[in-house]
Amino acid sequence: MATASSTRSAMLARIRKATSRRGPVTSELWRPTQAPSLDVFRDRFEHHLAAGGEVHGSLRLVTSIALAVETVIEVLNAADVRSLVVGPSQLAGCIAGGLPSEIVSCDPRAVERADGALLEARLLCSETGSVGLAASDIGPRRAAYAPPTLVIVALEQALVGSLADALVRVGSDGEAYAVLVAGPSRTADVEKTVVIPAHGPRAVHLVVVCQSHSREDTAVPSVNMNWQANTAGTDPGQ
Amino acid sequence: MTELRERMALAAGDPGLALRLGRALDHTIAARAARVAEASDWDALRDAAAATRRYSLSNLDHLLERFESNASASGMTLHYAADAGRACGTVIRLLGSSSRPVIKSKSMVTEEIGLRTALRRARIPVVETDLGEYIVQVAGEAPSHIVAPVIHKSAADIASLFRSRLGVELGDDADPRTISLAARDILRPRFVEASLGICGANFLTADEGAVVVCTNEGNGGWCLSVPERLIVVTGIEKLNPSLRHLEAPLLLLGASATGQRQTCYTHVLRAPGGGGPERIDIVLVDNGRSRALADGDLWEALACIRCGACMNVCPVYRACGGQAYGWVYPGPIGIPLAPFLRPGRRWSLADACTLCGACSDVCPVRIDLPNLILAVRARPWRRLPLGALCRAAAGVLARPRLFEQLGRAVRRRARRGAPVRYGPAAGWSLVRDIPAVPGQSFSEMWRRGAGERDGDR
Questions:
Q1: Taking the model in full, what pTM does it have?
Q2: Is the ipTM value over 0.95, yes or no?
Q3: What is the DSSP string of B180-201?
Q4: How far apart are CA A111 and CA A150, in angstroms?
């Protein structure tokens, strides 16, 4: 009977033989760098909230933590959230501190029964309009999927431009898990008709704390549109 | 007629299927077109994705070793399965003998290896959590599309299924929303109480030792959160160099599969703990992929990122649906994969193609499907003694008298009944009008007329 290591060696040997006859192939990746844009992010994030003529969530830009707290209270009331689990990050805790204490659920085992979750996102991606959540900011991971109302708070500094930037950020933060979220859960398995929600949250509300609340782009130094050429990864031999 | 042709003829004769399929597929095609139109660099994205996937396949051994090293260092346990049977055996062994509930998110490779059947035989209760796969499980059928498993079913079909198999009454005019929300209610308690999970992987990255899963429904999120133990089942060809290299494939996958700018959730799993499963096992499945990799003509079929765009535009798929192909990977991409991933079967999917080329136009990683399919078609013929056959034909053609005698004999036989309707040319002649057999050959006619012509002078 084949042992685990002999299966592995046999498989690797077959693959090595298969690829040895082929010359080296470089992977030229080139895409213009994209500057982060709050406007583009807003458009694309809001696009993810819409389906079937309804909007399943919201995006609010505020200029201070205090205003963020007010906004979150508004959102929670409108969504009739009576019990809220709060993620373990600093920003989430800060905002939760300003919420009525009867809403905030302290029982980490009650995640499945909670009406809502308040989590911080340390990554926003303007190209895809998605929000990045890291394991250490979610806490018990089902907090991002079980409660029907997901409220996400973020600082404007979390914004990056392209999906590649977002992926690099995810790859370098050493987290056990991260997820890029593009709106509330949905399915189109029945007759290709989009239905929100599917098995996850039915609404995603995002509150972004900006330094200056205006429609113009705020964080754009010189826009670098150079084409970047990269060979893929390190040399195969390393 | 072969089994394949029988199934396809049956499916093509069902007008309801064509209507439902066409409507659903056109929807996805239009959504994809919208994404293509708004992208400023669609072709550049395809080039980048095509290059990344080919690089990955050409350096698969190095990437696999790097992935193994990084994923293990992060605390994940890797297993290698040479074929479908061993892969199922490994999963069953990892699940253990208790009957704790198992939730499963979508994975085409688990369909390929027949995992659901194997688990049923081992009496391990597993529930599919992707809505389409759940419906397929309830129906006891095979999925008909790699992205939308029940694209061939109407809402009424599904409502009727819920009534007959689950005892859930949704009304005769149940719409997609009612059905989907009913499934949410049905599956929620299964998510909450799950202690074991099985999922697939859309991509693996070597540099981070990461498993990347793209979903929309949130069922993937549950599977990656709740169970104490998670088993990831994946083909070895899913490897890529790093997360950064997934930019183009991810942008193309969303657009090509469902016409979205991004799938709702892009999960990146790197280690156990951190609020999720305490133990993660990764089963790396070969099942013929290393043999495919060695094939000089067909290896690039492994670049596939499973978007389903090719089958959406394939005229054969649109006419017959996915189940008629009789295999987990229908449509164009299934044809070059079949000889390796399912070699034991004697059937020729390569005939199920008009060579129209619509598939390669939409393939995000630029797989040259029509030429791959031609190569698969040519394979059985290479076993014939073509050299000897050509020499024999040349011998006949070089002897005009022999050629004429042969021609007369064939015409005599043909006038008695059409031989071409039987034998190897049967399929070809079934859909073509055979011209009337002439009474004489051109040479005979010319010779007879020669006397008259000479007389005219």
A1: 0.89
A2: no
A3: HHHHHHHHHHHHHH--EEEE--
A4: 12
